[in-house]
Amino acid sequence: MNWGWFEGLLRAVNVYSTAFGRIWLTLVFVFRLLVYLVAAEKVWSDDHKDFDCNTRQPGCTNVCFDHFFPVSHIRLWALQLILVTCPSLLVLMHVAYREAKEERLREIQGDNYRRIYPNPGKKRGGLWWTYLLSLIFKASVDLVFLYIFFRLYRNYTLPRVVKCELPPCPNVVDCFISRPTEKNIFTLFMVVTTCVCVVLNLIEATYLIGKRCHEC
């Protein structure tokens, strides 16, 4: 999957972000996106191929793997990163809408027109609400995925051996996960960085609301 457009998106959003927002962008780009692309995808590339069960019963290994890994970590993280960065795209679209509106007024009224948005990227009016709601949405998405991971993989960890007794397995069979320790380390790393991102989003939202209340 090509993630190049994420880099351009995050660079553009950085222009309109607060200090907390820039820290959040750095965490997402360096500690989540790059770790995902460089290391995590390779760690999980052999999860199904090297999932071994001590039985030769046809279909047993596939059924057990599907039971213990209903959704791959990699696919969940990819979906999470897409949903987390989409609100930033809405902020850029709002700024682009303001700039386009200013350009239309300039074409109609000439260079001496009265500007509606002297600084289109300044967080005032509708853009302030768009930015605030984007922070709440990003924090909510991360919290939802943390809950999903916790429900699917208890305590965010993978056991070295799992016991499976689902049909068509003839009896209780032992199944072995490939590189469970390495996968647990990466999982905990992604969970911790996600929690830090949630805290930064909440701090930035509180900062925006406090600043607006102070100005009022």
TrEMBL record:
Places the protein is found: Cell junction, Gap junction; Cell membrane
Major localization class: other
Transmembrane residue ranges: 20-39, 76-97, 128-150, 185-209
Keyword hit for Transcription: no
InterPro entries per record: Connexin, Connexin_CCC, Connexin_CS, Connexin_N, Connexin_N_sf
GO cellular component: connexin complex
Keywords carried by this UniProt record: Cell junction, Cell membrane, Gap junction, Membrane, Transmembrane, Transmembrane helix
Domain of life (superkingdom): Eukaryota
Sample GO molecular function, one term: gap junction channel activity
Domain Connexin cysteine-rich: 141-208
Keyword Zinc: no
GO biological process, alphabetically ordered: cell-cell signaling
Domain Connexin N-terminal: 42-75
Bilayer topology annotation: Multi-pass membrane protein
UniProt record similarity statement: Belongs to the connexin family.
Cited function: One gap junction consists of a cluster of closely packed pairs of transmembrane channels, the connexons, through which materials of low MW diffuse from one cell to a neighboring cell.
Assembly: A connexon is composed of a hexamer of connexins.
Name of this protein: Gap junction protein
Originating species: Cardinalis cardinalis
This protein's encoding gene: Gjb5
